[in-house]
Amino acid sequence: MSTTVDLTPLRRLSHIEHFSSTRHHIGIYRCVTVTCRYQAASSLAAQAQLDTAKLYPALAAVVAAQPMLRVGILGQDSNEAHFSHVKEVDLRNHVSFKSLECESTETYEALVAEQQGWHHDQLWPELETRPPWRLAVLQPGPNMDRETQLADIVFAFHHSLMDGTSGRRFHELLLSALNDPPQPACSSPDAPHLLSFPDAPKLPEAQEDAIPFRNSISYVAKTLWSELGPDILKPRKVVPWHGKAIDFAIPYKTRVRPVDIPHEVVVSLLQACREHSATLTGLFHALTLVSYARQLPPDEAKSFAASTPINLRPWFGPKADPQCKDHLRCLITSFSHDYPAEAVAAIRRPEADLDALIWQHAKRIKMELVERLATLPKDDINGLLKYVGDWFDFWEKKKGKTRTESWEVSNIGVLPRPPAGASWSITRLLFSNGSMVAGPALGVNIASAENGILTAGISWQDTVVPDELVDSLERDLKTYTQRLHDAGKFGAP
């Protein structure tokens, strides 16, 4: 394996990549995870055990084709971090297998979620010489009855390498390679686990080089004043409910709670969204708002704020390298939504028309995002990250401050079905963010498989959000969506 002495520095991390590399170094954000359920065709159940003989060649092909899976990070303790050329990748350092002993589907699902939370909490070792990603193949033990072979593959990765959309895309590539086994040139039959890459990879360019951000003088001045101006000269801000304040001393433990929405219910949700000029992202924002408003007391939570990550791939500029456009990478920004006190109070009224309010907010979120998408990449916060000279000082100043957002809804979309007759398919995705110590108090992370279930992965830092609030959010998401499917309306809780 490579040593730090003979490592070749590649390009410097982009601003958004530094955003995550510094968070990892001080321990306040470790990774993103996208877990997919790989299901074997019934006729192959007897011989479909997913082992290294099947997985290593497929994984080797994906790693060989994706430069961001074969780089380390040099100087993560600085503002000058660079990616490093890792000449050898030993898959044994990245892949693990675990049998989850259980007797029921419910127990198995809970154990998968627990494992996902564990992966969120791990720091990346040997970051200079070992690419920061891992696969964990989880399979139910022999005591759980099942008709076909299945495995949940946890793909955990450092956010500097890629974003959630790339996490979904990784599974698409792995699934394709499993169904059409390749002959990877980077490994030998005698050592399929050891991959060799003597030549330095051509990395996707930095986000600020691929996306032509342009910011007006008024936007720059307003944003910098908001961030850097003295508080005594600013109007008093309305602080939304945000769980506990930012505290780096709280133990970093990520909790993950999956909410599975059956396919037939998803079909009803999509139809209803079309009828009300809304989207699933907006609808899940609205349902989270209603759940929070009805569970938290008015004197504790007068208002809320939330955010939606936005995939920046549609805004490649003319200078973007066409050979890298489809590579796994981090290309993302975010947009915030406010829920003022009067809007929250309207939901709490006993006589409130819940259906009308849910669709009102779902439609509003869609319109806000449509308007924002129409102006991108102009006046975007990512275009101002270059003004952050010292990221460690930036994070230090967050300590003790209130969070700006109550929750985040992140939707990485639908994973397509493989061709008919494929040996393996993916039937479920569980996507989640790790604990966002200096970000939103809770994440609602949406992903689905084509013609399969939709899963909303709720994630939060232990003790920052009360368990009772998560319990009620899980229950409400299930109840409201099922009620819409059964009765055509959300109705009263």
UniProtKB/TrEMBL annotation:
What's the name of the protein? Answer: Alcohol acetyltransferase
Q: What domain of life is recorded for the organism?
A: Eukaryota
The protein's matches in Pfam families, at most eight in alphabetical order, are given as: AATase
Q: Which InterPro entries match?
A: Alcohol_O-acetyltransferase (IPR052058), Atf2/Sli1-like (IPR010828), CAT-like_dom_sf (IPR023213)
- Annotated GO MF terms: N-acetyltransferase activity
Natural source organism: Purpureocillium takamizusanense
